[in-house]
Amino acid sequence: MKPITTRAAIMLAILPANAFAQYAPEDTFAGHDIFFTITGGVVSAPSFLGSNETSTYAIPNVSVAIGDRLNISLLDGVSYDVYKDDNLTAGVALTYDFGREDTPSKHDLLLSSVAKSEIAGLGDIEETAEVGGYLAYTYGNLQANLAIRKGVDGGHDGIVGDVDIIYNAPVDILGKQSVISFGPTASFADDSYASTYFDVSAAQSVASGISEYDANGGIMSYGLHASAFVPLNQNVSLVGFAEFDRLSGDVRDASIVQERGSEEQATAGLMINYTF
After folding, report:
1. Which alpha helices (H) appear in the chain, and where do they start and end?
2. Burial code of 45-59, b = ≥16 C-beta within 10 A, e = fewer?
3. pLDDT (tens digit, 9 = 90+) per residue, 70-87?
4. 12-63, pLDDT tens digit by residue?
5. Which end of the chain is more exposed for a tag (fewer CB within 10 A), N or C?
6. Is the model's pTM score more than 0.85?
7. Positive or negative, the Cα torsion across 193, 263, 206, 112?
């Protein structure tokens, strides 16, 4: 059983604890350099990448920010800013791909009904440890991000990444200095990653009834993402997000998507963070 799908975990838009410190009053964390964040919320996301069914999950998470460079999270993994100045941040990360079940099962974090077995017969894709790096460049309220990850142990050994451009708009919400962020995004992968998730072999075709398919890498999806960060007080914040993506290239044309899924993928969630 995989308690959270890869899609839901990837789309988890929880700001790290040091982001909360950035928008909190100057003396909120005076004398501290370690911040813990406990998060709870709900995420509605496709049952798997390419699915036409949506599942809703309860999302618990615990994260810690040590200084302004190291972040450790149960769901998002470990990241460290190797280089950081006023505009450019470059770092390394250890993350986790939650894999995919071909037959969804009921578990404690699933709030909606169990999704239909759209891809039964393809076999499970096991969880994968990933290593990678990221770049972020900030110019005023604009931020450009690039993240690349490589599977090193588990269900895939491919390369997958994301690129986005975000506009961060300071606004007043509920009388609090808040931030609304929005902008375009795209994801990409190599042949190995695309094959792991979207190939259908002859044997799998017989078992599932889905046509054989050989997927190549490239741009997997593109879309628009938006989020809102609202600090309710010096310790508690709300994060809401909505995302719409359209699959592209070989992923869009995959028999899994065309015969059992959808090219359009929507995700939304609401989180509450307690930072101390």
Report:
1. 6-10, 17-23, 191-198, 202-208, 249-253, 255-260
2. bbbbbbbbbebbbeb
3. 999 998 899 999 999 999
4. 444 444 444 454 444 444 455 899 999 999 999 999 999 999 999 999 999 9
5. N
6. yes
7. positive
